[in-house]
Recover the amino acids of this structure.
């Protein structure tokens, strides 16, 4: 496929561009929010807008265009895309980087001469207000158009309490109900879950499902991101009277609270939402084939159950502490870890608890120890299910919590992990059942000439699995957020170019916006935290109606990750309306 075909715009992308131009020239709008599902080409729309504004004279010869993206890796990706598109015919494209060893004056000259500047907000801020400025204020003032990729990542910051339960239920009914009341949505989800688990005879509780839905969609309060507010002010885009053009790109279509914040900050009369339409929109909208690979391992399922029991003991004590502090009998499920963190880290909360306990030091320290135990067992469960045996063993051996060391369940768990580790060390080429099944599938996909993306929670797992894959003759590489931008780009490029057949990646890195249409199939080595994050990461492999791709979740049977992956996939398909997606079980013996 040639570059002409690669950048041939679709009708809905042209429509988005034309909506922006019309509202700018005829309705005096200067801030545009383009809302489009992940994977439908928002960056190409940005290129179309830039080119049209230049050609029509809305951006003069001496004015500049700034591309802002929060992630370093995506900055490189965006620069490459705009270069390939051909924006260079309108002027130089400058990639603002760390520029170690390059004199600030040279950078100032480059940015002063460049038509297009690509930067992250932090790099740009440091370049403007650092001790040795690398961008002149005059250069900043010449920026006419600011394009912000995933604008809410830069713009909005969550804070404070979430909205009341009633408002959340109304939101779910309005956005996802299709005329159904909340109770009907919950009931249908329960029926769907039980249908999928009919062979296992599992039953689901409507109360549990409704609570999970409310946790997922409870709207947070948002304010302007304090971290990036200074550079947004320096760019002069915050005033409702600003004449600078702002184009924000986002896949967070359902985030009404964030949209309201944008309108309030930039000015209600200035902002317009752009919802692209076109004859080919349905053809390219996201569609997924979701499958689950269950890995059977009695040792892991028993260990997961034991960890759950240990956590429950400490949770019961945390509930008592919560009631003492707040008067409420239950800790909201989505705030348990936050409460633990506050209890362990906030002196004011600790002082308050100690006073309410009548200065009873023994009970006070017991509550703190239980909070620490709960947190340690939460991490232990993550290590058990989604990391390596070596990482789990090292973590467990390092625990010195008095509550846990007095627990028979914990001491048994520690002994079992130690014995498992001894087996690992004595065996040449030991593989866990989960690793074994993943390698089986990757080998099969590789032999079929398919490229696989594997999403992992932990950085060390991306490295570990790459080593295992290559030891089995599978061409693989890895990428994670701890790498510098150039290394990330190089590793991803080796996968895109076909040099490597498998890319192991930390899921948070990928969900931020790395587009990987080259991937034929995706594997989740565990579960993803939320539906919003899940949709973000799913969209990166560009699975749509015309080319539906398969996404597998590999999870241990009869564990918390098995249950979470089932509920996540069912809710994703049913609540978010991905009706073309399917879900089925693939059993791994």
């Amino acid at each position: 496929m040639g570059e002409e075909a690669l950048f041939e715009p679709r009708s809905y992308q042209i429509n988005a561009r034309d909506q922006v131009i019309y509202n700018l020239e005829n309705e005096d709008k200067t801030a545009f929010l383009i809302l489009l599902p992940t994977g439908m080409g928002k960056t190409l729309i940005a290129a179309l807008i830039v080119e049209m504004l230049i050609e029509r004279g809305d951006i003069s010869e001496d004015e500049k265009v700034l591309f802002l993206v929060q992630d370093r890796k995506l900055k490189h990706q965006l620069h490459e895309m705009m270069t390939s598109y051909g924006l260079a015919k309108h002027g130089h494209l400058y990639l603002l980087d760390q520029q170690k060893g390059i004199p600030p004056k040279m950078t100032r000259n480059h940015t002063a001469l460049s038509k297009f500047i690509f930067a992250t907000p932090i790099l740009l801020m440091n370049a403007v207000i650092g001790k040795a400025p690398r961008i002149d204020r005059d250069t900043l003032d010449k920026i006419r158009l600011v394009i912000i990729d995933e604008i809410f990542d830069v713009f909005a910051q969550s804070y404070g309490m979430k909205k009341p339960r009633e408002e959340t239920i109304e939101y779910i009914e309005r956005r996802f109900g299709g005329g159904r009341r909340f109770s009907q949505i919950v009931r249908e989800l329960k029926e769907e879950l039980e249908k999928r688990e009919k062979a296992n005879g599992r039953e689901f509780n409507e109360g549990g499902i409704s609570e999970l839905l409310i946790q997922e969609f409870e709207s947070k309060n948002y304010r302007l991101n304090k971290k990036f507010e200074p550079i947004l002010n320096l760019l002069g885009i915050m005033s409702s009277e600003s004449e600078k053009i702002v184009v924000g790109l986002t896949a967070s279509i359902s985030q009404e609270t964030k949209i309201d914040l944008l309108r309030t900050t930039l000015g209600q009369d200035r902002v317009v939402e752009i919802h692209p339409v076109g004859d080919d929109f349905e053809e390219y909208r996201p569609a997924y084939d979701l499958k689950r690979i269950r890995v059977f391992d009695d040792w892991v399922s028993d260990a997961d159950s034991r960890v759950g029991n240990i956590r429950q003991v400490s949770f019961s004590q945390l509930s008592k502490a919560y009631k003492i502090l707040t008067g409420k009998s239950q800790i909201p499920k989505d705030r348990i870890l936050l409460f633990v963190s506050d209890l362990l880290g906030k002196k004011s909360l600790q002082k308050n608890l100690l006073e309410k306990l009548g200065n009873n030091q023994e009970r006070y320290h017991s509550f703190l120890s239980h909070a620490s135990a709960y947190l340690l067992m939460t991490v232990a469960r993550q290590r058990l299910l989604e990391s390596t045996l070596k990482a789990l063993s090292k973590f467990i051996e390092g625990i010195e919590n008095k509550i846990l060391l007095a627990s028979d369940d914990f001491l048994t768990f520690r002994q079992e992990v130690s014995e498992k580790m001894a087996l690992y060390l004595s065996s040449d080429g030991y593989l866990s059942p989960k690793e074994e099944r993943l390698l089986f599938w990757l080998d099969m996909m590789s032999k079929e000439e398919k490229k696989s993306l594997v999403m992992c929670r932990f950085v060390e797992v991306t490295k570990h699995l790459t080593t295992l894959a290559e030891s089995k003759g599978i061409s693989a590489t890895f990428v994670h957020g701890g790498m510098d931008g150039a290394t990330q780009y190089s590793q991803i490029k080796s996968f895109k170019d076909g040099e490597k057949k498998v890319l192991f990646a930390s899921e948070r890195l990928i969900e931020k916006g790395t587009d990987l249409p080259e991937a034929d199939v995706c594997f989740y080595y565990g579960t993803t935290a939320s539906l919003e994050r899940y949709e973000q990461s799913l969209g990166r492999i560009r699975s749509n109606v015309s080319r539906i791709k398969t996404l597998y979740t590999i999870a241990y049977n009869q564990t918390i990750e098995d249950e979470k992956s089932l509920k996540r996939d069912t809710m994703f398909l049913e609540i978010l309306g991905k009706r073309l997606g399917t879900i089925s079980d693939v059993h791994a013996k």
Observations:
- The domain at 288-295+432-588 is CATH 3.40.50.300 (Rossmann fold).
